[in-house]
Protein 1
Amino acid sequence: MLQNNITVGVVGSGAMGAGIAQVAAVAGHPVVLFDSNATALEKAKNNLTATLQKLQEKGKIGNAAEIIGRFSFAADMNAFKDCGLIIEAIVEKLDVKKTVFSELEKIVAADCVLATNTSSLSVTSIAAACTKADRVIGLHFFNPAPLMALVEIIPAVQTEPSLIPLAKALMLQWGKAPVITKDTPGFIVNRVARPFYGEAIRIYEEGIADIATIDWALTTLGGFRMGPFTLTDYIGHDVNYVVTETVFSSFFFDPRYKPSFSQKRLLEAGWLGRKTGRGFYNYAEGAIMPEPNKDAALGQQIVDRVVAMLINEAVEALHLNIASAADLELAMTKGVNYPKGLLQWCDELGAEEVLDTLDQLYNDYHEDRYRASVLLRKAVNEKKKFL
Ligand SMILES: NC(=O)c1ccc[n+]([C@@H]2O[C@H](COP(=O)([O-])OP(=O)(O)OC[C@H]3O[C@@H](n4cnc5c(N)ncnc54)[C@H](O)[C@@H]3O)[C@@H](O)[C@H]2O)c1
């Protein structure tokens, strides 16, 4: 199972599938890439050839022609017959994924591992489509897959436990930074990162500060690479809002993950961000970008509030055994490039200060959204650090 020389199959040749196929081929595997849309497959073939050529010119990979030679571009799924691992990266729809998984099972050998790159669906429910569900696992890559090191490994309820270390070893061999996470909504990154967007939008909606000021505070004072408004405009509100809504409903409507009307309206207006020329910001030619209010005290208040909410999410994830402390830190630094891990951030600020910020918010608002994790309270009472 999952030997170094296995042939890797990838279903779906879109942004993620093509990227994952590239990573596997560069790591030395023969790769079979299939897409139900012939035009998409042709496009992926051309892009992969051009990308690998460029990487060779820059000295980042060896012989591009040799790596390209490892690919076969398949017109139907029977080409997956000899694969030892298949990674599915098709449209994010449970019924379509389930159909593909049950079709794959009719083609592949009994020891072929079937992985899904789903961002938001339950791996357990995808595995349930298979007769041999213990061979199914989640391998969640980040976009762009060749550049982003993080891979979240998500065992389903049915997954054979011995598959987990094998998947981890293979991802390490591919040069990735694997973390292991429970099959719960958003896994690690898409769960723990929610307040970066949600709390920033809440601060904006309350009129505490405008978008340019919040972005300025979180980048300049907070050390984040991009502010939440610039970032969601970049990701696209169609993608980011849908993740928020999915996480919110998947958590049985926990108010901590409540989506915002500001972002919903952007989506309804078709103001999806950079790709449509308008989102929170206006990217039209000649449009004037708003200037931040560089008030240090206001900026710090924004950073303290957003960072306390992020730390609380990470601590709660640790409390619920979603992942180990080390994996939580790796996920947030490698998956969303946070300046440091959130548990380290908590240790540096002091759990007491973080708890004070949260309790102050809770006292002011009387909203469940601001409830502090019991593990944070315990860390304060027992004067413990997380790392
Ligand atoms: N885009 C991201 O940032 C990102 C990050 C991590 C995970 N994901 C997940 O990866 C998956 C793919 O996302 P994407 O952004 O690459 O999508 P995409 O739309 O770029 O590509 C999906 C591809 O799958 C093909 N496809 C659809 N149904 C198929 C079927 N039944 N059989 C074969 N091919 C089929 C489509 O033709 C398309 O080429 C989704 O599950 C998504 O949630 C996306």
Protein 2
Amino acid sequence: MPRLAVFHADNLAVLRALPDACVDLIYIDPPFNTGKAQRRTRLVTVRDDHGDRVGFKGQLYRTIRGETSGYEDRFEDFLGFLQPRMEEAYRILAPSGSLFFHLDYREIHYCKVMLDRIFGRASFINEIIWAYDYGARSRKRWPAKHDNILWYAKNPEEYTFNFEAMDRIPYMAPALVGPRKAALGKTPTDVWWHTIVSPNSREKTGYATQKPRGIIDRIVKVHSRPGDVLCDFFAGSGTLGESAMQLGRNALLVDSNLEAVRVMRRRFAGMDVEWRRGAARAADSLLTLKEASAEQRRALASEGGEAGPRAAKPVAERAGRGRARRDRTGMSTEGRDDQA
Ligand SMILES: C[S@@+](CC[C@H](N)C(=O)[O-])C[C@H]1O[C@@H](n2cnc3c(N)ncnc32)[C@H](O)[C@@H]1O
């Protein structure tokens, strides 16, 4: 059974308590330094004949404002805040591990220079653009509708890249490529079109900056193996943790915001989770995750079902299996050409 450990703590203290080279994949989505407070209020609707909303079959519903979650997203010295945490991230990554660093256009260029210094420029592999199309459109400049995700491999000669685990996306003009290719779909590029977590979606937790499972699942499937130990030390609503649990990985999550921890408690109800306050037991929790990981690997090996080996070098591109699944992944074909 995959396991989670969730820490309500400042992530620097937790990171400093962890041993070297102990996690296989780090995904983080730090505060974006937008200069604004990030807040969202949960809205719950209940059936009420005098309600203000019309729902299915014309029935009336009343809206109740639930709890507000959020955090301040304002830093005097953003890089000064991030740098010691990223140095620790590099230290705790396993030799074949990868970092995925998610931000937006406001600070990403400064952070890339900082990460190039910490990881070495050769370790920078890709900048993934997550493109979406939601919300207001500025009339004064091009509306910014993308986030940036930097991928660094600790060792650029050896890292996990499960090409076959990649989901496939539909061709925009399937008639041009023939039925076999059209049914198979094509592999994604470094531009990922995906909806944001919509206010009506089932995965919505109410946390202001929650990221979509479709984006995180793709990273987890391609860049880690079943039984690996993953880490998100800016966990928010715990999207990486949920993805890890459902895909057979273990994860250590940290957030300093009590509201984030409350959201995670709801999200992970019924799952095998160790809850910790403060960083004191971080090394012990990591050990427990490592033991779970070793057990899962033994079970996978005995079933002969271990996920592919780590790529000694970037895996040669070859056609994978599976069909294009636009609806289930939430990925869209918008903006893509039809190169195979
Ligand atoms: C952009 S949100 C992460 C959202 C998350 N990816 C999700 O899908 O819900 C950033 C999170 O970092 C947390 N955070 C900020 N500073 C922190 C610190 N020093 N230690 C731990 N967590 C911190 C905030 O409380 C916030 O929940």
